[in-house]
Design goal:
It contains 5 helices and 2 strands, in the order E-E-H-H-H-H-H. It is mainly alpha-helical. It has a single domain, classed as Up-down Bundle (Hypothetical Protein Ta1238, Chain: A), CATH 1.20.1200.10. A two-stranded antiparallel sheet has the order 1-2. Helix 1 packs antiparallel against helix 4. The mean pLDDT is about 90.
């Protein structure tokens, strides 16, 4: 659908306010939208029965909540609903728990991780880098009383942890296939 309302270089926020397309909140929303798309790509790479698939779908939904909060002008944020249109401390705690769970049994190398061991981990690493960019955008915004910045920081940690977990599982599967099904 074409509205043509952005042809003059502005875009709408929730509640109808308009800001320039280069406004810092719009840069953040764009980075989060991009991160959400890469999480979707990662989800598409997951086997149907992989619990990571469900986790990624939940993260994509949580990013809608974050975008609603950011797209609301500061003077209107008092009407935001926790967990629906505003990020909560419980959502942050959920990311922390998921990161700890993902890292169980994963031995870390002292070397830097090199993305690309498999398509799923590569998509997760791209999502992580985009989330980091969103985090940098959020750092420059007036988000007083919000946990958006903390959420983005923990989300990038989770993307990293899921990528490392996926690499470990991928290596085990390759080794098992190479050994005729034996680990």
């Amino acid at each position: 659908m074409t509205t043509r309302t952005g042809d003059g270089g502005t875009t709408g926020l929730l509640g109808g306010a308009r800001v320039r397309k280069d406004h810092p909140a719009i840069a953040l929303l764009g980075a989060v939208d991009e991160a959400q798309a890469f999480l979707g790509l990662a989800r598409a790479e997951c086997p149907v029965d992989d619990p990571v698939r469900e986790r990624l779908a939940r993260l994509e939904t949580e990013l809608w909540v974050l975008m609603a909060e950011v797209a609301t002008p500061p003077e209107s944020r008092g009407g935001l609903r926790p967990g629906e249109t505003a990020v909560t401390a419980e959502m942050v705690a959920g990311l922390e728990a998921a990161t700890a769970e993902a890292m169980q049994g994963v031995e870390l190398s002292s070397a830097f991780a090199v993305p690309g061991d498999n398509r799923l981990s590569a998509a997760l690493d791209v999502a992580r880098t985009v989330v980091r960019r969103a985090e940098r955008c959020a750092a420059g915004l007036d988000l007083e009383g919000s946990v958006v910045l903390v959420y983005l920081n923990r989300l990038s940690d989770l993307c990293w942890a899921l990528a490392r977990r996926t690499e470990k599982e991928h290596r085990v599967q390759r080794r098992t296939r190479a050994n005729g099904g034996r680990r």
